[in-house]
Structures are given as C-alpha cells and as structure tokens.
Design brief:
With about 400 residues, this protein is mainly α. Among the domains are: about 20-130, Glutaredoxin, CATH 3.40.30; about 275-335; about 340-395, no CATH class. The protein is about 65% helix and about 5% strand. Strands 2-1-3-4 form a four-stranded mixed sheet, sandwiched between helices. A hairpin with a 5-residue loop joins strand 3 and strand 4 (about 110-115). Helix 12 (about 200-210) crosses helix 13 (about 220-240) and helix 16 (about 280-290) packs antiparallel against helix 17. The longest helix is centred in the middle third of the chain and has 21 residues, at about 220-240. The radius of gyration is 26 Å and the shape is globular.
Length: about 400
C-alpha cells in the first residue's frame, strides 16, 4: 500500500511538472552546465513584468499540454527578466519582449522569435531552430557573407519579423527580395501571400494599389483589415518625416485605393497626428471618427489613454482642449465596452477636466463595476480619495463673508 501510494504521488508530481512549460530555477551558468551534461539545446524566454503579451503567453500557450511537453522534452528552459538582467539583454541583443531564443548545448544562438502566438506556432518556432532553411542565425550568416539569392532573401526577410538592434532592417531585405521578382512573379500566390504578411513601406504600397490581386487568397474581411493596417503603417511613417509631403502623397493614394475615403482619411489623420504628438488634433480627429458607423474600439481607447497620459505635454490650455474632445469619445467607447477599466479612465479624464462631481459619480460606477467583475477596485478607491480631498480643500479656502 505504501509503495502504491508513493507511485501515485510520483505520478501526480510528474503530471504537474508537464502541465506547463518548466523553467530551470537556477542561474544561467547552471543552465549552460546542465545543457552540456544532458546534450540538450537551450530555450530562453526573455520577458518583462509589465508585458501584456508575456502574461498572455504564460497563461495560455506555455500551459498547452502539447507545447509544454515538446519544450520540456527537448530543451533546458530558462526565463530571464530583461529589466533586471540587462547584461544578458545586451549579450543576446534583445530588442523586444517577449523574445524567444534557441541555443545549442554550448550556448551558441540557433534561432530567435517572439510575440504572442498559439501553441502550434510556438512549437513551429522550436522546430525551425533545427532546420537550416529557417534557423535565423544560419540565414543571418549567409546574408552577411554576401548571399543575395532570391531564396535566401525570401527566407531571411521572413525570419526578420523579430529583428535585433544590430540587424539590418527587415524593410531593406524585403526590398532586395522584391527587386529580384518580375511583375508577373510578384502576382504569384507565394509572393502575394508573402506581401500580405509584410508591413514594410514597399509591401504596403503594393497591397493598397493591387488589392484585387489578393482576392483569390484572402477574404474580404482579411483584405479590409490588411488595408487599414497598411494605411496606418504608412501614416505612422509619414508622421515621423519632416514636413507634410509624405502625408499628402498618402492622401492621394487613399483617393484611388479606398471606397470609403472619409473613414480612411480619418484613420490616416489620427495615426499621423499621434506620431506628431499633436494631442489636440489627434483627439479631435478621433472624435470625428467615433461618429462613423462601427468605430474601432481599440482606437478609441488608445486615444483616450494617450490624451490622459501625454496631453499635458502641450501645456494646460491645450491639454484641456484635448481632454474636452476625448470626453466626447468616451460615451461611444463605453457603449461598445463598458467595464471597470474604461469607466475608471473616464473618471480620470473628468477629474483632469476639473469636473469633480461627474468624476465622483463615474468613479463610483467604476467601483461598482469592479465588484461585479470581482476585481479589487483599488484604483477607483484611490481616485475617489483624491476627488474628495480636492473638494474639502476647495471648501476650506472658500472666502467667508
């Protein structure tokens, strides 16, 4: 009976260990030693505590039984906080998070990837580390040695989705590849799918001017979404350039590439002004956009957050103008997505606009919503304290007759 009990306990422990991706609770030097002794490659998960996509991966993909089993059976896994271990970040040239590094048993880099992704793609990343045609650092060495064949450029540019700080820009390699293709070759299924997956200035321009060519391979919804993403990417680049010429050229492109030019112009304007950090114009453009049918929830929320955090950059008067505009957006946002976070943001904006009575009511509504969502509501309570303290201060300094 004792033996049976021990076997059951060991079985439960084994299951618990394989329930999620298991990281070594040791130092980097100990991981290198274990990899050498066991002749196993190394997987490194580089994260930051405040990274949304890191938390997303930890809660979902890292817990997937198939993905966890593959990684646990294949690698010695290690996780590193890039905000703490800055030396490791510099050594392996980590430019974003989450970043996934795949190294051989001696610690030499094989492959790299990153971002939030489903379990199947996460396993595909790991398998890519062992394939010469997909392993990032092998492709990098071929490129640096002068290899510019279309096949190498195609595969290397795809691997550059998660580049390093010291790497050549992906847009450069994509442009090099596209110049090797004839006009007829560019319209092949492989190249159209390739262009659809890229977001460089050249591929964005090509997609927007050849949208009908993509119809056999992508749905109407996919093409519409891609068009908006390409438009915003070009508007972002225009906002980073001096003057307005690039933006004016984009507006001309909109006339020939979008059926709904009003919506497209507003999307481009919002992104352009965001990059220029013109928070008043940005908020006002978003206010106009919010009055269109089915405005994008994330765009409305992003504008509200940016104005709240950065609107003060242009001084108190301009801040109040930006806040006033974005307060007109909040009813639309709350109609689309009424939750604790959005109600709290609305209350904070009302406080910034010096509307304490409405801010208090909205903060109380946020607190009630937190209770419904079984959240702490701590930030709403803190905001209520600030509002009440400000009210008492105003009463105490009121002149007496």
């Amino acid at each position: 009976m004792i033996t049976l009990g021990l076997l059951c306990l060991l079985n439960l422990v084994a299951r618990a260990q394989t329930a999620g991706l298991a990281f070594e609770p040791t130092s980097w030097s100990a991981v290198l030693e274990k990899a050498r002794q066991t002749h196993r490659p190394i997987f490194v998960y580089a994260y930051a505590p405040g990274c949304h996509f890191c938390h997303e991966m930890e809660k979902s993909t890292f817990q997937d039984p198939a993905a966890a089993a593959y990684y646990n059976n294949t690698f010695v896994a290690f996780k590193v906080n890039i905000e703490v271990d800055t030396a490791f970040t510099r050594r392996y040239d980590i430019a974003s998070f989450p970043t996934y590094l795949y190294l051989d048993e001696a610690g030499s880099p094989l492959h790299r990837s990153g971002g939030s992704k489903p379990a199947a793609d996460f396993v595909a990343d790991a398998r890519a580390a062992f394939a010469p045609e997909t392993a990032f650092y092998g492709l990098q060495r071929h490129y640096q040695s002068g290899n510019r064949t279309p096949d190498l450029l195609y595969r290397y540019s795809r691997a550059l989705n998660f580049p390093t700080r010291r790497e050549v820009p992906q847009a450069q390699v994509v442009a090099e590849y596209l110049t090797t293709q004839s006009a007829e070759q560019l319209r092949s299924e492989q190249n159209l799918r390739y262009i659809f997956a890229q977001y460089t200035p050249q591929t964005n321009q090509f997609f927007l001017t050849h949208q009908d060519d993509f119809a056999p391979w992508f749905s109407t919804q996919e093409r519409q979404r891609k068009a908006q993403q390409a438009l915003r990417s070009l508007a972002s680049e225009a906002g980073e350039q001096p003057g307005n010429q690039a933006f004016q050229e984009l507006q001309q492109l909109i006339k020939t590439s979008f059926a709904d030019t009003a919506q497209a112009n507003l999307l481009a304007t919002i992104t352009f002004l965001e990059m220029r950090r013109d928070w008043v114009g940005y908020a006002r453009a978003t206010r106009r956009y919010s009055q269109l049918p089915d405005p994008n929830t994330n765009m409305l929320l992003t504008t509200a957050k940016y104005v709240y955090y950065f609107g003060k950059e242009q001084g108190p008067a301009r801040q109040q103008q930006a806040v006033a505009a974005v307060l007109d957006v909040m009813p639309v946002l709350l109609k689309q997505e009424r939750n604790y976070e959005n109600l709290l943001l609305h209350a904070k904006l009302l406080q910034q606009a010096h509307r304490p009575t409405t801010a208090r009511v909205t903060a109380q509504a946020a607190l009630k919503e937190a209770q419904l969502q079984k959240e702490s509501g701590k930030d709403a309570l803190e905001l209520l304290k600030v509002i009440n303290a400000s009210a008492k201060k105003r009463v105490s300094i009121k002149p007496r007759g």
